[in-house]
Amino acid sequence: SVFLAMNMGISGFSVSFAPSFGSNILRKNKAALLYGLCVIAGACLIGPRVVETLARKISYAPLNAASSGIILISCAVTMFLSNVLKVPQSTSFVTVASFVGSGLFYGKVNWHTVEKILVFAAIFSIVSFGLTVIIKRRIYPPRQDNLGFYEKFFVHRDKFKKFIVFHDMYAGFSVGTNNVANVVAPLVVALGMGNLFWFLVISPLFGLGAYFWGERVIRSVSQDIVPVGEFSASIVSFITATFVLIASFLGLPTPYVQFTTFSLLGISCVKDGFKNTSEKFIVKKILWVWILVPLFTILLSYSLNFIFLKYLHL
User: Which pLDDT does position 112 carry in this prediction?
Assistant: First the structure.
C-alpha cells in the first residue's frame, strides 16, 4: 500500500501541478509540499464517496484479505511500470481494472458500474479537449481582436501567477478526492477500520512520492507534449480539476491523467495543428500505455487470484 500510494502520488502530481511547473512558476519541492497538503484535504472531505464505489459496487464478490492484497499488488506493479516509462497513468483506471480482474475470477463483475465509469471518463475527456481548444483559439495566436487581453495579462502578470498556483492547489485537492480512495478501498475491505483513519495514513504518502520522484514524470506532461504558458496552465488546471470534483461527488473513480492530457493535447492542436500533434512520439506512447496497462492489470489481477486462491488456497 505504501509503495502503491507513492507511485500514485507521482502520477497525480504530474498532472495537477504540471501547469505551474511547466510555466516555471513553482519549483518541484514547493509544488510537492502544496500538492501533499491539498491531497490530504480532498481525501478526508470527499474521498469516502469513491471508496464506497470501489469497495462495494464493482465486484459483487465478498473479497477477503488475500484478494485485497492481490488488488494492491496488481495496481502497484502496473503503476510502477508506467512511471518507469515516464508516462502518467490513470490511477483510477488501474484500480478499477484490478477490481475487475478479481471480480472476473469470482464471476461477479458489476458491468453496469464499470460501463458508467468508462462512459463518464470518455465524455469528460472529450469535453476537456473541446473546451480547451475553444478557449485557446480565442486568445491564440495574438491578433487585433484579442490584444486587449494580452495588455491586461502583462500588466497583472504577478497576480496571475498566484492565480495559477491557486488553480493547481485546487487540482491537488481534486486528486485527493478521487485517487487516494484507490489505495484506501482495498485496505478497508481487507482490514476494516474507518475510512478517515486510512485517509490520514495514506494521503501523506502521495506527497512523499511527488517529492522524491515526481519531477521525471511531470516533464512528460508539462513539457514533452507542448510547452505550457501561464494562461494555458490555468485553463488546463481549472477544466480538468472541475471534472474530477464532479466525478468524486458522483462517487466515480475517474482518470484525472486523461482529462489533463487531453486538455494539453487541445493546446498542442491549436499551436501545432492536429496532424503534428498526433504524430508526436510522446502522444503515441501515452495512448498505447493507456490502452495496454489497464488490460494488463486485469490479466495480472485475475492470474494472481487464480494462482493464490485456487492453487495455494489462501
Answer: 92
Q: Which pLDDT does position 144 carry in this prediction?
A: 81
Give me the pLDDT at residue 191, please: 82
The C-alpha cell that represents 157 in the structure block: 502578470
Residue 304 near residue 69, CB atoms below 8 Å = no
Residues 6+ apart with CB under 8 A from 81: 293
Q: Provide the 3-class DSSP secondary structure of residue 70.
A: helix
Summary count for the chain: helices (H), strands (E): 15, 0
Phi then psi dihedrals of residue 229, to 5 deg: -85, 175
Residues of the chain short of pLDDT 50, as ranges, are: none
Q: What is the pLDDT of residues 210-220, one digit of tens each?
A: 888 776 666 65
Please tell me the distance from the alpha carbon of residue 65 to that of residue 289, in angstroms, as a whole number. Answer: 29
From residue 228, give the alpha-carbon distance in Å to each of 36, 165, 174.
Answer: 23, 14, 21
8-state DSSP, 58: S
Which 3 state secondary structure label does DSSP give 24? coil
For residues 207 and 54, give the distance between their C-alpha atoms in angstroms, rounded to a whole number: 23
- Gap between the Cα atoms of 166 and 255, Å rounded: 21
- Measuring CA to CA, which residue among 22, 6, 20 is closest to residue 222? 22
Q: Could you give the 3-state DSSP secondary structure of residue 27?
A: coil
Predicted confidence at residue 314, as pLDDT, reads 63
pTM above 0.90, yes or no: no
The whole-angstrom separation of Cα 164 and Cα 26 is 10
d(CA 250, CA 243): 11
Rg (CA), the chain: 19
Cell triple for 3: 509503495
d(CA 113, CA 54): 10
- Angle between the N-to-C axes of helices 195-219 and 65-84, in degrees from 0 to 180, rounded to the nearest 10: 20
3-class DSSP assignment, residue 102: helix
Greatest Cα pair distance, the chain, in angstroms, is 72
